[in-house]
Amino acid sequence: MHDCNACNPTELLYKIRISGDYNTSHLPQLIAYLTSNELLVNTRKNIIVVKETAVAGLYDYFSDFMELKSIEFKVGTSEWTPIHEVFEWLEVKWIDKVILDNSVTFHIQSIVDRNKEVFAYEMLARFQDEDGNSVPPNVVFTAAKKRNRTYALDRVCRMTAVRHAVAIQKKVFINFIPTSIYSPEHCLKTTIQLANQLKIPFSQLFFEVVETENVTDIEHLKKILDYYRKRGLHYALDDVGEGFSTIEMLEQLKPNYMKLDMKFVQGVSDDLCKQTAAKKFLTAALQVGAIPLAEGIERNEDFYWLKEIGYELFQGYLFGKPGPIATDITLEKNNKLV
Known about the structure:
Blueprint: E1 13-18, H1 21-24, H2 27-36, E2 40-44, E3 47-51, H3 55-65, E4 71-75, E5 81-82, H4 86-90, H5 94-100, E6 104-112, E7 118-128, E8 134-135, H6 137-146, H7 150-168, E9 172-176, H8 184-187, H9 189-197, E10 205-209, H10 218-230, E11 234-237, H11 240-243, H12 247-253, E12 257-260, H13 262-265, H14 272-287, E13 291-294, H15 300-309, E14 313-315, E15 323-324, H16 325-331
């Protein structure tokens, strides 16, 4: 069944398993205390389920009066984990507020064609803390992963990106993390509904699969991509060599676009190993009917080399750094990068 808590984060509940005769002798007084303070959700044998607000105080009690090595916790579908690691969850509680407050904005970076004309923009999420300081996206997504909030954060980013697409009025690449999506029918329906509500043509929205190295369930990914494809949406695979290593697999996924990672792009014009990788990637893309896109281009020499062998689309600082939408759209009036 679809896990709605993944969409709208509420206070987390912690299952705490207390083992050993000495430790379990403390259970009656613990249960009485938690019940009187409305912190206990339920209890079963040697397992108590408590609200997150109880956890820090419980840990202090465990440390002073009980054997920590015989106490474990879990949250949602996570594995049982030693209680001394619980603060890794508590320390990133701030991510819940980021999600609930929709504290994300977007910068965009140009994707150009062989003539350096703007073909599309990639939407890049940007975050700030309560004091207005920039927080790197990798820090934010790592925090979300620790607290099983990846789907909720991914959804906030996806929905916000679609809203921003109205102002851009050009093709946009929107990142999404496939491993965070439980069910395409439930988890992606709101994205489609929002696009319809805003009257955004589906031909304007390209969804880009990121974190491909973490994809292990290819059948699940196929269901997600089928959901997009049947509704006329295009999608791209990022870092293809990391997660999808065979032509057979790529033929099953049927990507519209494939991105060559910057580690094979930067310096490719004078690096034989990178040239071999770039050519192999190009062959694979063409074989499955995908448009090849090279990202991370910073030098003209690399651009011209990739263009010469057949790459169609290009992205990188050579054509423009990520910037706020209004700024980048102003630059795009001529619809051509110089």
